[in-house]
Amino acid sequence: KSPPADFPLQEDEGVKRFYKQAAAAVRDGGGFGVDLDGRAIKTPAKAPFTVPGESLADAVAGEWNAQGDKVAPETMPLMTLASTALDRVVPQHDEVAKTVSAYGASDLLCYWADSPQELIERQRAGWQPVLDWAMQRYDAPLKVTGGIIHVTQEAATVEALDRAVAGYDAFRLTALHEFTSITGSLILGLAIMEGHLDVEEAFALSRIDEEYQIELWGRDEEAEATRQNRERDLANAARFLSLL
Predict the structure, then answer these.
(1) Could you read off the pLDDT of 84-135 as tens digits, one per residue?
(2) CA-to-CA distance for 186 and 188, rounded, in angstroms?
(3) Could you tell me the CA-to-CA distances from 198 to 85, 140, 154 in Å, in that order?
(4) Cβ atoms within 10 A of the Cβ of 56, count?
(5) Of 32, 132, 154, 189, which alpha carbon lies 20 to 30 A from 54's?
(6) Is 173 within 8 Å of 97 (Cβ atoms)?
(7) How far apart are alpha carbons 209 and 206 in whole angstroms?
(8) What is the tens place of the pLDDT at every residue in 176-219?
C-alpha cells in the first residue's frame, strides 16, 4: 500500500524506504516543497512542508534521495532544521526570539577568566574585536567581567539585541538559535548571521577556554566526541542558512 500524500518524516529510526525518487516542487501560493514519487511531504507535525527557496528544497530532496533501504532522520539535518522552523518557530516566533536574545544578557564573550594571564590575553585578543563589532553594528556596548560574577548589561543594549533577533524570519531565526546555543554566545551567533565571522572562526572563539585546558591536560575522548558533534551541527546550520 502506498503511503498517503502527506506522509511526514517519521521520528522513529529504521523506517523502511517506501519511495523511489524525491524532487523539489513549486507550491501553490509561493515557496517550494519536496515530493516523494509525486506525493508532497509534510513535517513531523503534519504541517505543509514549504520552504522559501528552491535551493533548500533541492537540498532536502537530496537528503531523501541519499537514504538507503531505511530512512534515517538523523542523516537529514536540513529536513530537520526546516521542519523545526515550520513546526516550532513559525507558531512561536516571539517566544523563540526571546529565548535566543536572552543569551545576550549573559553572553559568553562578556565573562573572561580572572587567571591565568595567558588565558585572559587569548580571550581579549579573540573576543574584544567581536564585542567592538557588536557595539558598532547594533549600538550595543557590552560590559565584561572577570570570573563568574554576573554583570548586568545596560537596558538599551539588551533592547538593541532583542530587536536584532526579533527581526529575523522563522527560518533564519532557526539558524540563529543553532549558532547561539552551540557557541553559547548571541554575539557570535549574530556575527555568523551577518557574515562578520564564518562558523569555523566563531566555533574557535567559543572554545578558547576549552582549548587552553586541553593544552594543559590533554584531550578527553568523550569531550572530543561532543566537540565534533557540535562542530558538525554548526556546519549544518550554516549550510541551511546559505541555502535560504
Answers:
(1) 999 999 999 999 999 999 999 999 999 999 999 999 999 999 999 999 999 9
(2) 5
(3) 22, 21, 28
(4) 25
(5) 189
(6) yes
(7) 8
(8) 999 999 999 999 999 999 999 999 999 999 999 999 999 999 98
SS3 content of the chain, % helix, strand, coil (to 5): 60, 10, 30
**How many C-beta neighbours within 10 Å does residue 27 have?**
15
Strands (E), the chain: 15-16, 22-26, 32-36, 39-40, 70-71, 111-112, 145-146
Scanning the structure block, which residue is given the C-alpha cell 503534519? Answer: 46
* 125: helix, strand or coil: helix
Do residues 199 and 192 lie in contact, with contact meaning Cβ atoms separated by under 8 Å?
Answer: yes
For 104, residues 6+ apart whose C-beta sits below 8 A from its C-beta are 140, 142, 153, 157, 158, 161, 162, 186, 187
pTM of the complete model beyond 0.90: yes
Residue 118 backbone zone (phi > 0: left; psi -120 to 50: alpha; other: beta): alpha
